[in-house]
Write the structure tokens for this entry.
Amino acid sequence: MSLIERLRSTLPGGPPAPSGDPLLDELRVALSPDRVKVDGAQRSLLGKDASVFDGGNSGPICYPTSTDEVAAIMRIAEAHGRAVVPRGAGTGLAGGAIPLGGPVVIAVTKMNKILEIDEENGVAWVEPGVINLDLTRHLQPLGYHFAPDPSSQQVCTIGGNVANNSGGPHCLAYGVTNAHVAALEIVTAEGEIVMLGGLDAEPDGYDLRGVFVGSEGTLGITTKIAVTLTRNRPAVRTLLLSFESTRDAANTVSGVVAAGIVPAAMEVMDQRITQAVENYVNAGYPTDAGAVLLAEVDGPEAGIDIDAERIRDIGLENNATDVRFAQDDAERAALWKGRKTAFGAVAQIAPDYYLHDTVVPRSKLADVLDEIYAIADRHDVLVMNVFHAGDGNLHPLLIFDGREPGVLDRIHAAGGDIITASLDAGGVLSGEHGIGVEKQKYMDRLFTDDDLDHQNRLRRAFDPVCRANPGKVLPMGHSCADIQHLRSVPAEVWG
Amino acid sequence: MDLKLDADDLNTCVQCGLCLPHCPTFRVTGDEAKSPRGRIHLMREVQNNDAPLTDEVIDSFETCVQCRGCEPACPSNVPYGHLMEQARETLADAGEMTPTWQRLAFKPLANPTMLQAGSSALAVAQRFKLVPKRLGISEELPIRRKPLTPTGNDVYFFTGCVMDAWQRDVHAAGMRVLEAAGIGSIPTNELAPCCGALHAHAGMAEDTRNLAGTMMANLDPDKPILVDSAGCGAAMKDYGHLLGTDEAKAFSARVFDIQEYLADHVDSLPEVEPLDLRVAVQDPCHLRHVQRVHQATRTVLAPFVRELVELDDDGLCCGAGGAYSVLQPELAGDIRDRKVAAIDRVTPDAVASANPGCSMHLGAAGVPTIHPMELVAQALDRGPKR
């Protein structure tokens, strides 16, 4: 490069200095030089999300600020034969956002504007990088909130919620993300901008919006989302029930549902996790109880106490040792803060955790939990249980110190057994965290070859070039043929 | 490279990411390298995997405000502040951070005569409009300062370095309020020239240890030490950790933020007509996230103003960060914009901030900022309730 060129490239607004890598140069022209990063630190950071999987290094990392920029990135990546991986806050637990084979990473954290609140149509238009809790807080003064409330809601993005069809404690009564998205603007892997769904009650044609929600970036990337507004709850009652065993807690949950009550949330934590959580929040969780059930009912003031008292009675019938009602919003908030920070709190016990996400029929909850404790004993690993009991969504946390030799093999084996036990009980692989790279190899236990081939054909209809987050969700052999080489990491990386 | 970080402390982080929205630099950049989780990851890469110490890694560490807003958000109680201070100390010792000009700039803080002479010179320069705006000095500095004299013998009143040179009026107000509550105080003046907080932030912890030693040797070991600067108070409460001696731990246990101390004596203050002001409380990070005694400001202030209002930004940093606003002006400005927007949303008449750095930084953006003790003192000056 001549001196003149070098000088010019330092001027604001001047063309970026050529790097020698055409892909990088084109991306820098399409965005701006400071919003395309390739340094080692950055690539190492974006090699990980909140899961235990390490995807290795990403290619260039782009921070677009508009739909057009996303489309440009997609076209440039395709022209250079590179895959594209979307990323929100990086709080995923199944490795859905980790880069495989040096892809272009699209980080949507700078697309974080709430574009419009449309009360008439009952939606808010938001960009994908808006943080879930920021949206709810923004809507609060108007009397609304965004219903899906994952435990990571203070940090996770709406784009990530759409990609994973995220749930949360209160999705028991309100439904998961799919029930709260009216329309989506997406950019396909070929750079085409498409609107899926719409604000009409019954949009024409197939529900492609529904296909896209939960597709973990394998069908493209969403750039604008119309989320539905949910009215704030007129009245709430929150109860904390203590039990001697998780079995009693699980039976209470089944009893409540069998009694025809639809609580807003029902969450169970076992003793070990309750102790870790209480140590952080000091919310008055009983650390001597074998398990606790956090239950919440909401609705009009009239009648709400009746439901709360019935839950208390069902708990007492199932040997509850204590029942406490939250006296005010502050106490309620403290209890929920404890539940929602449970995963992070485990580092007080060991520095690594591996988390499963299977769903089992509610009637089998108690049996499967017993089986999980037995599996952990058998493999000599520590397990803690915290889960969305109301919909049978288990979150067994296997706790370990990755520095201990051989521990990963035991964690791996125990994890496999937990999945088998859940599937044998009639369950499914994932409630809300997604398949990512984590559960791919178990997909054929749940689906037949024919099922998987059809899923792949659906994927190819959106992404014929196989560039959108390849190597995720669908197991090898059933996914795009030309991405086999992307497995640049060993097939089973657990630490 | 061995950053000399405690292996267990470093391992406490499970990379869950709950800290991200509580980090001011992540909030304004969306960049993982400017988040606590990212910085810890890079510390691990450097220390455990011998990753190269590139400009990007240094930049990631240098752009940290050290507000420690991530700490209360962390369910695993990762001691992030201590990790960052240790990393900076190691890197500064190795000549990778804190260049000589910065080291020299921190030196006069420990020397009151030099500091006050320099400050007066700066004040004169300011009158001739010779002080660059970039320094963010929002108020007119005093050319001369009225000496503080003891009002009794119950507690020490820590006066410190820059704050004493620039905002001695705040100290005077604090001492007046204490006196009204029946608490006589001794200004520390040259007994305790500087707390060393800025040195520790810049990786010059050895200077901090020396300053701590001087202070501990000079102050009577029976008296509480009250501090009206959140950053200084936090640093002095950390001497126990920094020096690791029983003497230092006992010293730290005697340090109180002035609002924290007064909250237990608020009934001793006379009842007066409250100031007719709607006041927003801006919690300095080192009061809220480090000392965690920010509620005391409300307890003390409430009887003396018409209305207290809360900001809705979860105590996110304002971007002042000691010397940060001078060293990282662009990020500090972006962070301040968020704070100013939060303040505008509650339309206060004044903003109460118990830290000199915050009030300077916000003042430079036109926010009417005042120390809570000055508000209480003003109300007390109006005399008894009619």
